[in-house]
Amino acid sequence: MYSSVTSTSSFETRKKLLIEEMAKFLPSDSIIADEETLRVYECDGLSAYCERPLLTVLPDSVENVQKILKLCHRWGVPVVARGAGTGLSAGATPSPEGILLSLARLNRILRIDPEARTATVQPGVRNLAISQAVEPMGLFYAPDPSSQIACTIGGNLAENAGGAHCLKYGLTVHNVLAFEMLTAEGERVRVGGQGLDNCGFDLLPLIIGSEGLLGVITEITVKLLPSPDAAQVIMAAFDSVEKAGDAVAGVIAKGIIPAALEMMDRYAIQAAEDFVRAGYPTNVEALLLCEIDGVREEVAEYVEQVEDLFRELGAVAVRTSQSDAERALLWKGRKSAFPAVGRISPDYYCMDGVIPRSQLSYVLTRMREMSEEYGLRVANVFHAGDGNLHPLIMFDANVPGEFEKTEEFGGRILELCVAVGGCITGEHGVGLEKIRQMRSQFSDSELEQFHAVKEAFDPGGVLNPGKGVPILRRCQEYRSIGN
Amino acid sequence: MTDIADRLVDQVMTAKTASRPLMIRGGGSKTFLGRAAAGETLDMSGHSGVVDYSPSELVITARAGTRIADVRRILDEQSQMLPFEPPEFEGRATLGGALAANTSGPARPWRGSVRDALLGTRIINGKGEHLRFGGVVMKNVAGYDLSRAQCGAMGSLGVITELSIRVIPKPELETTLVQECNEATAINKMIELCRQPRPLSAVCWTGGRLYLRLSGAEQAVASTIGYWGGELLERAADFWRLIQEQTHEFFDGDMPLWRLSVKPSAPPLGNDAPVLLDWGGALRWVRAESSLTAMERYAVSAQGQASLYRHGDRNGEVYHRLSPPLRALHQRLKAALDPDGIFNPGRLYSWL
């Protein structure tokens, strides 16, 4: 697969040749070849997986990205594209014999069309920057992963990253109208358009969430929504996670779709409160944060209904934000839960499984049992509205064998998610991290079908090789181990 | 209400062995759509029935041959609905057909399309393998999304056998405002009103009248009526049904019906042909004896795409033509799922 360069010459020769070729069109500060600086690019947000790339390149134009891809295609050099590197599944881990293609310099907002309610941006634009740019027009971009202050929109597309507001506003895939992509061969393709539907195969959902395995996205047109004129968040505390789980189902059953519905368990509440002082009660087992947004009158009506419902279903405390500052503070606790847990444990490992809402209590109970079995604490922070769990397994990387134990525990949580009808990743992606668990969700034929799709888009296998879908031989080995 | 998946797999295997094309057919309500194509019928109508419905999960799973009308009745009992409001076409349209043909009703810009509501599918690929993609949960990024990729593929990427779809609660109140205006004014009003955070769920213009459907909490709807004004439409549900089912008088007759999916703020096309605007301006139906090339030109000027939806020449191309690199990707993707080219060949494009 990796053509003549590897077979006839060493890595160093390949590196030298690539630098020579790329220096013909890239300025010297766009090529990083020294070991020290390359170290910065060794991993994404999941630092347990590290690889030094052969080279990192930072092109500042689509034309240069295209030239890089054409060159890599010709020479069979692997290419791993990345944005801000906030991914949590080792999806942007470099290939040691390939190029790490940083799209960070493609960071311009190209056009905002308030009349058509769209923004066209380059992939290196930060998620939050889009909403900030269109705020004066009374518009916003809905998908808001917790890392939105840093993560790039290109990475959001690659992972179909969602965030807290998916229940009402959908995932990335629901909020993208079009993009321009470079194929593995370096050919420019426009997918989608300014209208809502397009003729031919719907390649948007196929490529969004494909973890950079099918193409490199160079321009994106997103949908913008009118900013709701009111939003309030209701915080409700419960003395058991079961009651909180029932309250989640209760809201949905009432016909109310909150903008966000988030849940935290005891560890997460404690850690977040110590960190942010959001005013969370700390002597409870579970906390719900339920945001209602929309027309002012509608928000008032629904807030009252939800408050009553939470009390009826056994909430020990209910508090509703009375100002935007209070709302922001209540959310700040939730958004800081991950770093907050980082303060009470030397290390933590964030999982990303999805379950049907009705399985919440069962899954939490099973996780508690497993936590005892492994002797590792777990804090839970999750998007209860859409069943997306983010268990944070606390461990100490300095204790020999503890990371391995953590990984095994995490894998079992994901398998549990599949067993109850869910899936192994909701928004972080498979990357390298969950490749082992793919077999618990898909049969060999299904995995083979994925490989055929990959082959259709990237016959040379240069784009982000080894991620996302296990190669079948390896997959079969895993199966036999499992048996 | 039966599961005939095994029979369907057998028929696919036989067709594959003999390299014989199959024409996939559910309720036969959309035979007018796409290009005229031939092949042995693969009848999906017997593969029907709801497999699972959990109202509190907001998800329904049904076999592809299940009629939309039947699904609606079941959802009605729980005051829930299909967000994408697909046409029923005299009760014959099926869930699988809605996905394959990508049919969404007037709420499309606000509540999404059939693809947006889709969570998972089972499909039979060209090797006769019965595969499952996606699932029943809202978030799922494991593997490539081959479920949503079925949307609008007109059955050429596999036989859809089962769908899991997200449903939504029915709105508390629904009412429609009507304002008199010409097409250009209507487009400007659509731009202005769609930018406001109001409970819109459909915006359509036809026959010199702009129709604004409001859905949501009672107070929100009431306050919007106060802000916007206009006459309240009586029997509004009937009007929207005519638009959804394409039975409004605009759709009568044999004159070719063109469907233009464009940028919603694009100015009127200005070719004097009768026009109906839906989706807040993003969908424009045009009645005209015209060529695909001419309609493509119009659509491109409005930053969108054209297709010949009903009537006219069904032997030529009927869908907006693709750029060469996109065309190449289509052929390769088709080969990845249907290597022998047995599913609905020629229905979407002559070369596919």
What CATH calls the topology of the largest domain in chain B is Uridine Diphospho-n-acetylenolpyruvylglucosamine Reductase, domain 3
CA radius of gyration of chain B is: 20 Å
Query: Low-confidence parts of chain B lasting 5 or more residues at pLDDT below 50?
Result: none
Cα end-to-end separation of chain B: 33 Å
Q: Note the gap between the termini of chain A.
A: 32 Å
- Kindly give the count of domains of chain B: 2
> What's the pLDDT, averaged over the residues of chain A?
93
| Major sheet description of chain B | 5 strands, antiparallel
Which sequence of strands runs across the widest sheet of chain B? 3-4-8-6-7
CATH level-1 class of the largest domain in chain A:
Alpha Beta
Helicity range of chain B: 25-40%
Rg of chain A = 23 Å
Can you write the helix and strand succession of chain B as a string?
Answer: HEEEEHEHHHEEEEEHEEHEHEEEHEH
Structural class of chain B: alpha+beta
Taken as a percent bin, the fraction of beta residues of chain B is 15-25%
How much helical structure, as a percent, in the residues of chain A? Answer: 25-40%
Number of H- or I-type helical stretches of chain A: 18
The main sheet of chain A comes to:
8 strands, antiparallel
Pfam family, one (chain A): FAD-oxidase_C
Keywords (chain A): FAD, Flavoprotein, Oxidoreductase
Protein name (chain A): FAD/FMN-containing dehydrogenase
GO molecular function (chain A): FAD binding; oxidoreductase activity
